Amino acid sequence: MTASRSILITGCSSGIGHHAAHALRARGWRVFASARRIEDVSRLRAEGFEAVLLDVADSHSIETAVQWLDGVTGGRLDALYNNAGFGVPGAVEDLSREAMRHQFETNVFGSIELTNAILPWMRRQGHGRIVFNSSVLGFAAMPARGAYNASKFALEGFADTLRLELAGTGIETILIEPGPIESAFRVNAAREFATWVAPVQRGVHAALYASMQDRLAKPGPSSRFTLSPAATSQALIHAVESRRPAIRYRVTFPTRLFWWLKRLLPTRWLDLLLRKAGG
Prior knowledge:
By secondary structure, the protein is α/β, with parallel strands linked by helices. Helices cover about 50% and strands about 10% of the residues. The longest helix has 29 residues, at about 95-125.
C-alpha cells in the first residue's frame, strides 16, 4: 500500500531526520532525504537515498531543491516532514536581533517557505501530509532557551493556522512534539551559544550559563527520559500512514507531563516547575 508513496524529509544528516528516512524507506516509501552540507548529501546517497542539497535558511537553496524534486517526481509528493532545526541557547537579554533572525530563518521561515512551495502540488493531487517537528518547548517555555522557545511557539501557530485553512482539501497538517531525544542537538547548541551569545553576554547570567554549558557538554542522554529517534519515527509513521492522524503527537514523558500541567496548574506554579526543569 505504501510502495508508491513519497516524502521529502529535511535535516537528514543525523538524529531524528536520519532515523526517519531509514524507517520510512524500510516501509516502502520513496524517501527524498535532504541535508544542508554536501558531504552529508554524499553520505546519504551512499546509503542509497535520493538525496538533495537543501538549506532551508536559504531561499535559493529551497527553490533549487524544489525544482529538482519537481523534475524527478512530476510535481507529486505525498508527504513533507519539516524536521530541520537547531537551538540558540541564551537568556533573552543576551539575544541580538541577528541571533534571533538566525534562529528563525531555519526553524520557522524555512519551514514556511518550503511548505508553501510544495502546497500547490498537494492541492492538485487532492491529498498530502505536512508534518512539522516542534518540541515540548513549542508550548512550555524554559529559561535560557528564548530563541528556540519563540521559534517553536511560532511554528505551532503557523501549523495551527494552516490546518484551519486547509480544512476539506484532503491535506493534513500535523505537529510532532518531541521532548528529549538522542541527537546532535546539544553539540550544535553549544556551538550556537559560542557563536551568538558567549561573545556578547552581559555577565548577569553567569551562573545560569555555567550550568547550561555543563549540561550541553555532558555525554550521553540529557535525562533519564531521553528516548531514541525511533520514538519520533514511530509518531511520524502514524502521522503519514494513518487514515485519521492525530493533530499533535507528544512523543516523550516530559512532553505529555507538561502538556497536562499547563492545563491544570496556575501559571505561577507552572513557572516554578519550568524554571527547575530548565535549570
